[in-house]
Batch of 3 targets.
Target 1
Amino acid sequence: MTGYFITFEGPEGAGKTTILGLLEKELRGKGFDVLSTREPGGIAISEQIRSVILDKKNTMMDGRTEALLYAAARRQHLVEKVIPALKQGKVVLCDRFIDSSLAYQGHARGLGIEEVLSINEFAIAGVMPTLTLLFKISPEKGMERIYKNEDREVNRLDLEAIDFHHKVYEGYMLLADRFKKRIQVVDAERPLNEVFSEVTELIESMLAK
Ligand SMILES: Nc1ncnc2c1ncn2[C@@H]1O[C@H](COP(=O)(O)OP(=O)(O)OP(=O)(O)O)[C@@H](O)[C@H]1O
Ligand SMILES: Cc1cn([C@H]2C[C@H](O)[C@@H](COP(=O)(O)O)O2)c(=O)[nH]c1=O
């Protein structure tokens, strides 16, 4: 596959979606063929799975069911949208991917990073990101940003206790340490222009290789 697969990761409210939108515009301006998408979702089947997972009414959902639903949404999204775009040489910008499952379900939910990695290896069949940007922010700061944003709907995962969000953060830090070559940590607590300028530098250096 000839394209670039760039994933955006981090706790709630880290600024992933905002930076992804800015980067898309910047790269398009430079003539790159860009596809922006998100997980869970991005295509009809995966958006339907997203509604089930994030529905606040589904309080009885078992952790393993949750992990399997994310992996199923991921598989369909990869096959229908991401892989064809990579084959066409596009730059694919994806809001969350496998590391979200490892941090949220593997570490925070307590299912185990290895176990969740193993079901995801089946789902992705070797398609891994070229680069992952991990937006580092404290759970308190991230949740504060989310609750300030009146346009964003609060979902079932947002409603988890703050301890869960601390575990998500901890999970991401473990992943950054384990996958040093792929994951670039970006301090997301800084003003937006500073975060964006670091991201553009990282992307430019990746595209120049
Ligand atoms: N660097 C920043 N400084 C201050 N506010 C920011 C910054 N980046 C994003 N925001 C604001 O924080 C809120 C959350 O941003 P955004 O939706 O991009 O985060 P996210 O990581 O995609 O969140 P989630 O994964 O929970 O959907 C938005 O209101 C956005 O305008
Ligand atoms: C892909 C993926 C996501 N999650 C969680 C993370 C968030 O709480 C929601 C998605 O909401 P967003 O506003 O689009 O960020 O789902 C997860 O727990 N596991 C995953 O694999």
Target 2
Amino acid sequence: MATNAATIMPKVSALVLSLFVDLCLFYASDLPLIRGVFGFFTRLWFVAALRFVAPTAVTLLILGDFKPRLIRFTATYSLLPAVLETGTQVLFREETPCVQRTDLRCWSLFAAASAAAALFWEVIVPDAEESDGEKREKQRSRVLFMRVLRLFRPDYPLLLGGLAFLSLAVLFEMFIPFYTGRVIDILGGRFQQSDFLSALVFMGLFSLGSSLSAGCRGGLFLCGISSFTCRMKFKLFEVLTRQEIKFFETTKTGEVTSRLSRDTTLMGRTVCLNVNVLLRTFVKTVGMISLMMNLSWKLTFLVLMETPVTGLLQNIYDTHHQRLTLAMQDSLALSSEAANEVVSGIRVIRSFKTEKHEANRYDDRLTDTRALKTRRDVVGAFYLLARRLTGLGMQVIMLYYGRLFIQSGQMTTGSLVSFIIYQSDLGDNIRTLTFIFGDMLNSVGAAGKVFEYLDRKPAVSTDGKLKPDQLKGRVSFQSVNFAYSAAPSNQSKTVLQDFSLELKPGQMTALVGPSGEGKSTCVSLLQRFYEPQDGEILLDDEPLRSYDHRFLHQKIAVVSQDPVLFSGSVRDNISYGFHGCSLDEIQEAAGKANAHEFIMKLQNGYDTEVGEGGGQLSKSEKQRIAIARALVRRPQVLVLDEITSSLDADSENQVQQALTRCPDRTLLVIAHKLRTVEAADQIVVMGGGRVEERGTHQQLMERKGSYYRLREQLFTENA
Ligand SMILES: Nc1ncnc2c1ncn2[C@@H]1O[C@H](COP(=O)(O)OP(=O)(O)OP(=O)(O)O)[C@@H](O)[C@H]1O
């Protein structure tokens, strides 16, 4: 109860005080002193402004804020008398009874009319109550917009040039209708050759100036936008390549490529073009209104009355259009995602013969997009119809009064023609000005997506600095716990549990265990693709994360079971990421990997192109190039993850020999071939995310533990 009173009292006080102030002003406006000082129209509009400002100030002082609906009501209420009087004077050359004496009935009438108008507005276009979230969203849009503008900084000279030409183009353009009117007047009145010629020359000059400036403006803006887009694409690509592996596993390829190609382009274009449109429209509108006022201020006021109606139409249209456009963008993204999936998985699709199914799936998504597009177009068509009808109605009224003004000698035919040409553009310009700011903020949606990636800090940091001159290569996993997803909501199981392992320099360790026990996960952790949730992985007693990223990957080299090659020559692929190595070093590494011979038989030897993803080579050849790529950096720790599965016995022997020839290197091998594992100095059997057994082949066989029991399951060839 007490709380209610506490909230109601300030509101009642604000209302009473505002009414009091307003009534004082209402009566004061009729004082002889005021009438004596101001002219008729000046007094009307001055009092209107005071009657808007005073109650607003009172309410603000008492309540501390001013709701939009209250602003609308106060504006209508204070301006209505001035608009009515001006309109009556202009159109009928009479005064209303209300202006002749201050009458409380007039005051009540205006108050009631404004209340009715405000009520009508509330019912037709109610204020969307802005939640905190929406306010934050708007604030965020503003910040994003300013950030995009700041990123344009290197292109400011181009943009400023564009703006200068923009202003020139608009100014020149504005004078063309004026001279059109003059030509008509000259033709319709007493024809004067010199006047006619000078009007034509000016018209021609202004047209030429406007076209040239518009061309330069467009060119400079487009250059600015394309330079910005290139910069953004590069920046984004750089940031993307630094992200951790998990990011790529959880983010769809379509989404990443769409940000790189579509959103970066959209971001520069929409923001830049919106600023362009805003400035152009502003300059044009101000210029047009002044020229129109010059031709006939009465007609200008009449024309401006159309603005609230078109504003309302635009508001309704924008709300629906934006909603449908967003839905369409999402739907388009889904379609391109479906297409991407098909292209990348075409082999699987072919082998399962699901081409028809995939085509239907794509078609379904296209149908959704089309339905949304149709709805958006229908809304657009209705809006266009309503806008045309309003415009047409206004033109009829304008022509009617224009004729009256010509008859009474207040205008010439030429001025009316000029006026009509200006008017045809004015509505569009005012509409654009009213809504462009909102549009500008909405257009940063794409920028928001790009910034989301640009600001993303990789979960696995790569800012270690350690680069020792000497590295022994001792690796130890110390009580490592790891799950692919650490989020409690995610049901992903723990892959490594209290896992400890020591890899010594000069020793070969074989990691064996049933499928899915976490062998490859150990390798991924060693490469720092992921960070363990608990425990530590040390290299020469220092945590892996403290090493310089490039140094670490040079010292720990991994050859995986499914190596990836990039398009380029064999030589490029072997020296990939290890710039400055000589052909001799490359050939030496290729020799150790048993690849030199087959490379020399290729058409261009080491300069032969391997095709996209190494598609022109066999699996074994790709594998051997990948081994050479690892060996060329002379790594201290070498990891071979099931490489022997795709090598023939001959290659396997050669590689094995080459690897054992380097006595200081730490070697970790994951293999399913007993022949490979037998040679290891230590065999580690994994089970349940832990080390179950360790020892040499001989020791483990004698122990008759899990290694002995599982050997049928562990190795592809029989023991
Ligand atoms: N990127 C990943 N995201 C989530 N889970 C994964 C990921 N990679 C592997 N796993 C899961 O982690 C577990 C261990 O996988 P890992 O590939 O390390 O086993 P593995 O012992 O090397 O198996 P294999 O001998 O078949 O290669 C499996 O249950 C697997 O499903």
Target 3
Amino acid sequence: MVDLEKLTPMMKQYMGIKSKYKDAILLFRLGDFYEAFFEDAEVISKVLNIVLTKRQSAPMAGIPYHALENYLKKLVESGYKVAICEQMEDASRAKGIVKREVTRVITPGTIIEDELLSSDNNYLMSVIFEENYVSAFIDVSTGELFLKIFEKLDELIDYVKISNISQIICDEKLYEDLKRELPDIFVEKLDEWYFQGYDEKIKETYKLASVDHFELLESEKKVLGGLLKYLEYTLMDSKVPQKPKKLEKTKYMVLDSKTVDNLSLIPGEKGKNLFDVLNQTKTSMGARLLKKWILQPLKDKNEILERQGLVEAFYNDQLLLNEIREYLSGVYDIERILTRLSYGKVSPKDLISLKNSLLLIPHIKEALSTNKKLEDFASNLDEFREVVVFLERALYDEPSNSPGDGNVIKEGYSVELDDYRNLLFHSEERLKKFQELERQRTGIQKLKVGFNQVFGYYIEVPKGQIKNVPEDYIRKQTLVNSERYITQELKEFEEKIMSAREKVELIEKSLFEEIRVKLLDYVENLRVLAQKLAQLDVVSNFAMVSRLYGYTKPEFTNSEFSVKNARHAVVERYISDFIPNDIYMDKKRRMYIITGPNMSGKSTYIRQVGLIAVMAQIGCFVPGENVKLPIFDRVFTRMGARDDISTGKSTFLVEMSEVALILDKATRESLVLLDEVGRGTSTFDGISIAWAMSEYIYNEIGCKTIFATHFTELTELSDVYEGIKNLTIAVKETNNGVIFLHKVIEGVADRSYGIEVAQIAGIPEGVVERAREILDVISKKSELEKKVSVLKQGQLKKIKSKKKIPNGQLSLFEGGVNG
Ligand SMILES: Nc1ncnc2c1ncn2[C@@H]1O[C@H](COP(=O)(O)OP(=O)(O)OP(=O)(O)O)[C@@H](O)[C@H]1O
């Protein structure tokens, strides 16, 4: 316990402030350092690896003020909330103890400082549970704000995992669940009052008398109110974020986190991914938008065609494409500049970057309007002439980054500032002149005018010349070889310069603030422009990569999915001789069972089908020829086998829960891609489940499905159902072993070549030989094949007519394959 009686006044001030920020690390500004005390000191010394000292047994640790940002980054990344307490007045002018206040609370989701952010989005999410899981999330650095509702906790968790959400705030009820399910995310529980009085909070924030036109549900308002209050608490400012956008489930193709991962859509653990292949955007705004588009492919045909139309226009006009991309490379991250502008953290250089970006708009408009198909887009771009002219007049082209030093506001903008600046910046010349006149007056040629912190300007005379010093010199200091004096005139001059310095600081700072406030009126419209530029960046980027990699424009159908020479957008970038393969599916021919040796290219083929669907629906061209495909409502994938160690589920349980999700959620408009199902259990159980599942998907759901498997028994499904076909991958056997041709053909794999692959992988020759002998024996003895062929005859017909049993569970083979 700290004995308050024994504390100095400053430590009492510290304790008072700390009591309001108990859950944060308080960094307390003391001169040139930010100090932490007690437990906070112990934490930061450990996390930041800095020295822990003690004052009267109280642990303390400090970080130099100029290195704050580096240390902050580490603390926030390590999952701490940090409150920054600043000195609110100049220590030299304070009467008594310097006033101090917390000016900012930094958490992973509320960072606006550019140095602490990557160019990616960074979201803070607020969630409550009221019938559904209702969320509001914002990227504070760009001001974008979304609302989204999830029916199940799993869906929410899944969304968080793929969406660059770095922090969640919630009420007591959800806290434990979210903390457990999202161990890598900073989850914070808020007091109840955050989610009360939301109507008032929203009205106050958006300066509206009523929020009816936002068309929000009560629960949406509640979760949004909590978010707005939290922003005020951390950013100490109630700046207006953008109006909330509702993310309706029905607007976008659904991609769960497993599918995002299985298809390697965005950078993650698997390395090579679609985002990296497609991303040649010129702005950070474009890169962020591209990622958003990849994670939310469109479902509305008109919207897709609109995007595709822009891509096509650029694709066909290469000269324009290159010109626009050249302009875009000069566009800065306007979204983030606008946020810093709103939060009073904008720098003079930011405003010049904004101006320079705006200067490009007339060129972009002019260029775009030369193409009929891009005219409309061009006419919707505002040039913000007023803002440009204003910034031209107000700021130097290369301003310093600290308003107040006199190098920010342009000459001619303020007469008053110019006068003081003149005095300050030309003081050197005046001093030189003064020195010259004094030399002449006294005849002391070695007389010098200098400056020090203790008594300001002085005249220095060498010891040997003291006799010539005039009456009006007042002695101030004696040194070994010289004496230092001041005069009335020099003192007055000094006061003028000092006051000029103060005035320049004061005036320039307040002019800069005035400029900032004036620009606030334009923020909302400038954001619209920023979004358009981001779109322009992504569509022109699509045209660019489509040309570069030979993608073609897909055409949308009601059901047919056909592509000639389809390729895998990511794999083809990393191997030199990728073999293209065709895809053909329609209403009838809607399920493929692919069998084939290990390593032959089954997974690559089914993933490329998924990637083509995603690419088409984000408006991009796709790797293939004569591409026709329907619009899918969701792509499901079930691939690989991995233990979910963090949740204690076994490989097989994970596999079965993924299958359960597909059977429950897939519709006729979905695309289902399965790479091995039923491998995590015994062969008989596995085949039975895979068989029953395929039947259910084919009969009950009726969606397009590709299923890669090593169970050749499943290929017999094609004998029973007309729309199920078999594919395999061609293999050439030579005297030196097998060659995988990676060519997909109709048919069934006759062998799995597992032993050949084992040999290639380096399994000792003896073991490989022995495996061959064993294979020889057991394949002769295999009972399995016989049993499945029994199914084919009488029993299969019976099973075929079986439907779902009432409780929603699947009826497995009655009597089973063993029976
Ligand atoms: N169309 C193709 N053209 C050229 N190379 C390919 C092609 N498809 C796959 N490959 C190469 O073959 C390798 C194995 O492919 P893939 O993982 O798809 O095989 P698989 O049949 O699914 O194997 P397994 O059954 O062992 O999972 C890939 O890493 C790739 O290098």
